[in-house]
Design brief:
single chain; alpha/beta; 5 helices; 6 strands
């Protein structure tokens, strides 16, 4: 089963592929995509001509692992949500919003009768790796995290672009 969606605080799109064995409760991977302004999670990393995510998802599905992927704020269909983000939320960060969005999917997954709520895993690539690590730290219902090439610097760098500054952890 594969679930895809994007969120702005509620599920806007939710497509389900029929299960072969409806009695089996599946583990699920919540996939968090890399920097991909135009495509969000759709195109994925540049393996096999940009079909990397599709191939990755197919591998999970072939092993009986459901996949949920959504576009993080500032990417794909949600690219415009960051345009006035700091005017609306001066004391928050884009990264904090990404973590909150990711956490909001956990109850949705728990309520699906074909998902094993004790086996919700986060898998993130690049920026998604950072979001998966942080979400895993703050969400006890996450069974585990796989961080692939996560963002390397969590401190503010004076020369960093304003977009990247919003992705730093404020401690």
């Amino acid at each position: 089963a594969a679930v895809q969606g994007k969120t702005t605080g509620a599920i806007q799109q939710f497509d389900e592929i029929k299960l072969k064995d409806s009695s089996k409760r599946l583990p699920v991977v919540l996939y968090l995509h890399e920097f991909s302004f135009a495509h969000g999670y759709a195109a994925g990393y540049s393996f096999q001509g940009g079909n990397g995510n599709k191939l990755l998802f197919e591998q999970f599905l072939s092993q009986g692992i459901a996949v949920l992927a959504f576009e993080q704020i500032g990417f794909g269909g949600r690219i415009e949500e960051v345009s006035a983000f700091y005017k609306r939320f001066p004391n928050w960060s884009i990264l904090g919003n990404m973590v909150a969005d990711t956490k909001s999917w956990i109850p949705c997954l728990e309520n699906l009768p074909w998902i094993d709520s004790n086996k919700i895993w986060l898998v993130g690539n690049s920026l998604g790796g950072t979001v998966s690590l942080l979400t895993g730290m703050f969400e006890p219902k996450v069974a585990g995290v796989l961080c692939i090439n996560g963002y390397s610097s969590w401190k503010k760098e004076p020369q960093a672009s304003p977009w990247l500054t919003g992705l730093t952890v404020h401690m």
